[in-house]
């Protein structure tokens, strides 16, 4: 069979995922849970959108960690910001009624997500501030139905995504909460007691799964508590064995101290994780268009946003090394996705319309990066006997030299994308 090399304008890679084994039950141990094959759709998807939205979108200053930096660490710039702009005695809780979401249109968001070329979306259902974007019965008067928008924001977006797009719907959930008295008391006991975990955090997870049936569960924020405090293995055993999404759900690795990059479904390891080489385990690079914040910032400058060239480079490097890219935007308090985020999302979609063949459903090739031309990254589709070469920098001459592919006379076929004028000639070593 002839081998085919495709030359395109930017890169990728991925890890092989086996189908879910429906026989037997997973035990509430990491040894058993870690044997669960990752549902194949996740590896094939390659690209998702992260959305950080919450009460922190109201001050929209500095970071989504605003509350902690202001009242936890008492950083000067945050204390000064509050003193200059809000009356004495103003508390973080006073921001909640100002989280109005009056311009939030779930259908518009869903359409924009679809235009981005992403195959899944992950919404922050609850960040470390503890405010839930759904009317959780475990978060009385600190949720989007009781105060602020007075709407089920999770439910509205879930419905729109499922009815208007092909995207898989996912949810982020923070295990701990910075200033929840129950958590602070548990922490004071060195987690000998587990009132917050058993009466607040874990019940929220069951509520989210049963009510919204997300296909991605993005856990975060262990609060320096071990997975035994969170009963993470017990919950995941239920999720994989009995939940309504047991056959399709994917989870990450943030389930307690010591679990990250070691246990769970796919690995995230750190924020903005991009190792630059192939890993033996499926991983995800979660990163944000705003270089300094995951939440919306009113004080962001144009230079603080990654360019489309930088974003494409990150996507290509990530996929080439077996990862998925989860690219974040932060909406405003009133429910808008600002123009620069819209532009970046649509630009990614436009690029993927041309080059997505080498990204979606691709596999890592034997080489991720070219040995002669470093700005070239590879992906492959073994079932088609095809290799895709993405070059991130235009050659200084009219010739692009590749060191990794070995041409076989009469068998190797090179396909250039003829939609680009002036494509360089390809020389295979």
Tell me what the structure shows.
It is built from twelve helices and 13 strands. The chain is an alpha/beta fold. It is globular. It starts with a strand and ends with a strand. 49% of the residues are buried.
List the helices and strands and how they pair.
Elements: E1 4-8, H1 30-33, H2 40-45, E2 47-51, H3 66-72, H4 76-85, H5 106-115, E3 120-126, H6 153-164, E4 168-174, H7 181-188, H8 195-212, E5 216-220, H9 227-230, H10 232-241, E6 250-251, E7 283-288, H11 308-320, E8 323-329, H12 339-355, E9 376-381, E10 386-391, E11 399-402, E12 413-416, E13 425-428
Helix pairs in contact: 3-4, 5-6, 5-12
| Main beta sheet strand tally, sense and closure | 7 strands, parallel
Q: How many helical elements? A: 12
Distance, first to last CA: 21 Å
Which segments are poorly predicted (pLDDT under 50) over 5 or more consecutive residues?
8-22
| Residues in helix, % | 25-40%
Proportion of beta-strand residues: 15-25%
Structure in a nutshell:
With 429 residues, the protein is an alpha/beta fold. It contains twelve helices and 13 strands.
Features:
globular; alpha/beta; 4-stranded mixed beta sheet; 429 residues; 13 strands
């Amino acid at each position: 069979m002839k081998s085919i090399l495709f030359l395109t304008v930017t890169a990728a890679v991925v890890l092989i995922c086996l189908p879910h084994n429906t026989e037997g039950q997973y035990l509430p141990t990491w040894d058993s849970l870690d044997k669960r094959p990752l549902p194949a759709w996740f590896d094939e998807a390659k690209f998702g959108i992260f959305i950080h939205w919450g009460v922190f979108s109201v001050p929209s200053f500095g970071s989504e960690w605003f509350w902690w930096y202001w009242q936890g660490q008492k950083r000067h710039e945050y204390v000064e910001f509050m003193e200059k702009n809000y009356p004495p005695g103003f508390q973080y809780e006073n921001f909640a009624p100002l989280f109005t979401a009056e311009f939030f249109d779930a259908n518009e968001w869903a359409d924009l997500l679809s235009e981005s070329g992403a195959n899944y979306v992950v919404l922050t259902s609850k960040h470390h501030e503890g405010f839930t974007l759904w009317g959780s019965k475990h978060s009385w008067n600190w949720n989007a139905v009781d105060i602020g928008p007075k709407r089920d924001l999770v439910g509205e977006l879930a419905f729109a995504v499922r009815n208007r797009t092909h995207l898989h719907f996912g949810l982020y959930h923070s295990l701990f909460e910075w200033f929840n008295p129950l958590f602070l008391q548990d922490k004071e006991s060195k987690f000998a007691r587990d009132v917050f975990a058993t009466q607040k955090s874990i019940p929220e997870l069951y509520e989210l799964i049963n009510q919204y049936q997300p296909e991605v569960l993005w856990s975060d924020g262990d609060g320096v508590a071990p997975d035994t405090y969170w009963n993470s293995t017990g919950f995941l055993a239920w999720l994989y064995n009995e939940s309504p999404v047991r056959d399709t759900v994917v989870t990450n690795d943030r389930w307690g101290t010591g679990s990250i990059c070691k246990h769970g479904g796919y690995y995230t390891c750190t924020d903005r994780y991009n190792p630059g080489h192939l890993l033996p385990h499926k991983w995800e690079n979660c990163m944000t268009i705003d270089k300094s914040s995951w939440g919306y910032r009113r004080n962001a400058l144009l230079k603080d946003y990654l360019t489309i060239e930088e974003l494409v480079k990150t996507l290509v490097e990530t996929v080439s090394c077996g990862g998925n890219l989860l690219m974040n935007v932060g909406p405003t308090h009133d429910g808008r996705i600002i123009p620069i985020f819209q532009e970046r999302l649509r630009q990614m979609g436009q690029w993927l319309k041309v080059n997505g063949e080498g990204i979606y459903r691709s596999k890592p090739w034997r080489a991720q990066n070219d040995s002669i031309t470093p700005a070239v990254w590879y992906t492959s589709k073994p079932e088609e006997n095809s290799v895709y070469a993405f070059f991130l920098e235009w050659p200084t001459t009219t010739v692009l030299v590749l060191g990794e592919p070995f041409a076989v006379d009469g068998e190797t076929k090179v396909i250039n994308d003829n939609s680009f004028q002036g494509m360089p000639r390809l020389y295979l070593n």
